[in-house]
Amino acid sequence: MSHAPFRIDLRNLPTEGKDISGTLTPAFFELSETDDIKAISPVTYELNVLRDGKDLLVTGSLDATFELTCGRCLQRFQQHVEMDDYQTEIPFEDASSTIDLTEPIREDILLALPSYPRCEDGNVEPRECPAQGKFEMATDESAPDESAEAPAPGVWNVLDQLKNR
Ligand SMILES: [Zn+2]
After folding, report:
1. What percent of the chain clears pLDDT 70, i.e. is strictly above it?
2. How far is the CA of 48 from the centre of ligand 1 (A)?
3. Domains held by the chain: number
4. CA of 163: how far to CAs of 33, 125, 160, in Å?
5. Which residues neighbour ligand 1 (ion) by CB within 5 Å?
């Protein structure tokens, strides 16, 4: 599903670019009830779209709030994503086509979520993880560094599912 404000018709795009701003409902993310990640606020966007040769240059800010599951205590917590210096380039072949920013923007926001959600890192309602310290064995120095691994299945599952929908 694409969202009208994010469909950019290159033929109607002024040389100096175009500003688009507004909000979209959480349904923008097309997350399902069973996903670990739940969008709980509208998406706010304030973007400039500019044609730069064979690329569409998108800059500006995005924000949205999500509910995630803490990987330690398995409780739900909220995480606010705020991207003030958002920038993406979308290459195109056909200068008379319409480019849909829906998918790249959706993916970029979801990828800004923590790979290893921890409720004590939540930036909406600060708290201490009730399970903190209970799993020290799993995080001692002999264990591989979590941050060096691929992102947790949560984010990638969701992205895969979106692609298959
Ligand atoms: Zn926790």
Report:
1. 84
2. 38
3. 1
4. 17, 32, 5
5. 70, 72-73, 119, 129
